[in-house]
Amino acid sequence: MSSQSDSGVPMLQMRGITKHFPGVLASDQVDFDVRAGEVHTLLGENGAGKSTLMKILYGLYQQDEGDILLHGKPVSLTSPANAIAHGIGMIHQHFMLVPTLTVAENVSLGLKSTRGVLSDLKTVSKRITELSRTFGLHVYPDEYVWQLSVGERQRVEIIKALYRDASILILDEPTAVLTPSEVDDISLSSENLLMMDAVLCSSLIN
Ligand SMILES: Nc1ncnc2c1ncn2[C@@H]1O[C@H](COP(=O)(O)OP(=O)(O)OP(=O)(O)O)[C@@H](O)[C@H]1O
Ligand SMILES: [Mg+2]
User: Which residue owns the Cα nearest ligand 1 atom 1?
Assistant: First the structure.
């Protein structure tokens, strides 16, 4: 997964990003560059605007002012589908999985190629197993999500983003929902996540 840009242009540039909500300036002229191979952590107290900035990058919110450039080219990220098409994946503070479905079924939800569901699920399962091995995530396609711990569910979300060819992975407060031992698991697997082109995390400080 290497897409080192030869020109030295950052893979992602956020320029002067401003976002207002009624009565709140959530993001004030934020500049933020990411180069291939980097891992960034956004630190800030409750309400500092971390999630807002990441949601803008994932197309969930639109900025009032400012530009986003990918590989030097301005992009308009108008929806998560659009962000995913540009190689941006996001793991939310609150997970978006369907507990009554298996891991493979969850990963296949929303994939364009899901036509013959059964044969597709086989393909999906195989790729999940490969990604799980590559990134050291210990995710198994046939398990039901309701049977998984919160930490395991988070890794399913990561696999879901990797499956969609995310080259920039956004993790919104990845440790907020985890137990201490699950936090240790995640910090181990973040070595594997360095294989991603870039990882952005947000983290709460009090
Ligand atoms: N959809 C929304 N509608 C109105 N106000 C919002 C919305 N989303 C965020 N805000 C406000 O914008 C500000 C920044 O919120 P944001 O969620 O980005 O902060 P955060 O740094 O992620 O905080 P936390 O650590 O609590 O997750 C806060 O004042 C919040 O109340
Ligand atoms: Mg937040």
Answer: 21
